[in-house]
Amino acid sequence: MPELGVSNAQLILAAKQTAYMVFVSLAAGTVLAMIMAFALVLTRSDSILPNRFIYGILNTIINTVRSVPFIILMVFIMPLTKMVVGTRIGTTAALVPLVIFIAPYLTRLFENSLLDVDRGIIEAAQAMGASYFEIIWYFLLPEAKGSLILSITTGTIGLLGAMAGAIGAGGVGDLALTYGYERMNTPLMFLTVVILIIFVQIIQTVGNHFAFKSRNHE
Are 115 and 25 in contact (CB under 8 A)? Predict the structure, then answer.
């Protein structure tokens, strides 16, 4: 594909790198976010495990991280990235800031989804003698499942918008920056935008499908 200034192999590699960064960081971020979201919901003053100290600390940390722009966050935590993966640049190195970026974002989305669950369901579970784990596993999660799926979908799309390519992380963003913007290669920049749009459309369609199935199943 000479008119674009890059080969088909480079385009395919960039797409694979983007998918790798998004889905690996999403998996790790989702686990962390789910833990933090349940901690926030359960330790609220009006919940079943009220704890002002835990709620206050966690709420402050999440708000602080979310207020930092992603590109600044990437630079700020470079020493941590180096310690965890052994390098500050590259596709794998980008996973560390991406996880730290997406976890608080998803936490807020998950928190809202869980808070939307009818409190009467939780009260009924308590009246039946359900343990805290049973309340989470058998009542909160099933009731919030459709909304949680849409939250993950939104988070995935948010990750695509993160500027991982700005510091040499690879992927479609790096391709657009290095071979597109810096060389004033408009066709290539347009193509990378199209690729990202396709990614977003696929992710949103799949997310909507599973959320719809989940809610109808209920």
Answer: no
Six token digits for residue 191: 């193509």
Q: At what angle do helices 8-42 and 95-115 cross, to 10 degrees?
A: 40
Q: Are 106 and 33 in contact (CB under 8 A)?
A: yes
Residues 6+ apart with CB under 8 A from 66: 104, 105, 108
CA 147 vs CA 140, 144, 154, 167, 202: distances in Å: 11, 5, 11, 34, 18
Q: For the whole model, what pTM was predicted?
A: 0.86
Q: Are 90 and 16 in contact (CB under 8 A)?
A: no
- Read off the pLDDT of residues 77-98 as tens digits, 9 standing for 90 and up: 888 888 988 887 778 888 898 9
**Secondary structure letter of residue 146 according to DSSP:** H
Q: What is the pLDDT of residues 48-76, one digit of tens each?
A: 899 999 999 999 999 999 998 888 888 88
DSSP E strand boundaries for the chain: none
